[in-house]
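Sample 3 of the quickstart, ligand pyridoxal-5'-phosphate:
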Amino acid sequence: MTNKKYKLNTKMIHAGVSPDPTTGAIMTPIYQTSTYVQAGPGDHKGYEYARTQNPTRDALQSSLAAIENAKYGLSFGSGMAATDAVIKLLKPGDEVIVSNDLYGGTYRVMTKVFAAYGIKFHFIGMQDAQDITKHINSNTKMIWIETPTNPLLNVIDIEACGVIAKKHDLILVCDNTFASPYLQNPMDLGATIVLHSATKYLGGHSDVVHGALVMNDAGLEERLRFIQNSCGAVPGPHDCWLVLRGIKTLHVRMQRHCENGEAIAKYLRSHAKVGKVLWVGFEDHPNHDIAKKQMRGFGGMISFTLKNDSIDEAVKVLKSTKLFALAESLGGVESLIGHPATMTHASIPREERMKNGLVDSLIRLSVGIEDVDDLIDDLKHAIG
Ligand SMILES: *Cc1c(COP(=O)(O)O)cnc(C)c1O
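Result:
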């Protein structure tokens, strides 16, 4: 099916999936094989070896491209493997401008792995996209953004970044994990590559680790597919199948994540012991106008601080919830609670994170799709 013909909710169900040629199975089978038999040397059906090609992965890759309004999709063993593949487009001496409030693992691979290969990363605030231009020089090759950001839920103007990237001939990478394609399609706003940790909303059931890239440029797709095959961080067919199945309910899950997120953000805001509540749907959120412009809804990711800002106070809350499970990750059907300072963002030095507003008591919620009254009761009991 073509990308444009059907609306998003239909593409989630049908894109990339066609009846299995052998049996007519409506759902793409899990092609659990490492190799494919050839009739004679080089005489094959387009499948030679499973690191290079797999039909279950093909179906998923087509689905990913379709739901992000892109031409090409590529799957990886994790979101970080997808990140790693994108950075491998660069060479020593190249520079990247990166939003300073981003997934801890992305910061870690950039500073602890790729910096040693001579790639330079500038971490800057991007609430005003024009600030990016100050850091562009003749070595700059890439702009890397994540929006909404994790865990501070800032919003970056993707379209404005796209204009800057185009003007300076730079690759604009947008990590769309938090919003998911249901809420935002960065390719339509000028992104060159969209990245997902499909572990989160795309998979949606906390049962798989997976990464994805989508792009429109054929040359770029060829280079990234070469890296995917050469470096080998490919997903197994069962994992591809789980993500393919997850995508089929993305739109109905996201609708409920958004509804529950809104109710919980409003509840927290009314709580006497809660300091700041960060949720992009609030009209007084500093980037609400951009969020309204580029997102179709505001999601179920919420961060909040306690008026008594200390790690101990946060830990009391984290240990007291019964439905919100204390765990890393996000985007699953079950609600999670986390403490960025000691969990997902522990690899960022305290001084650095405090500067960016990632304070000691900051608690992050990934609001699931349980009954919202039960979730609010759980928080009421835990915060006290
Ligand atoms: C989880 C996450 C990643 C990394 O993905 P993995 O699947 O865990 O490797 C990257 N970016 C964001 C925004 C994430 O939340």
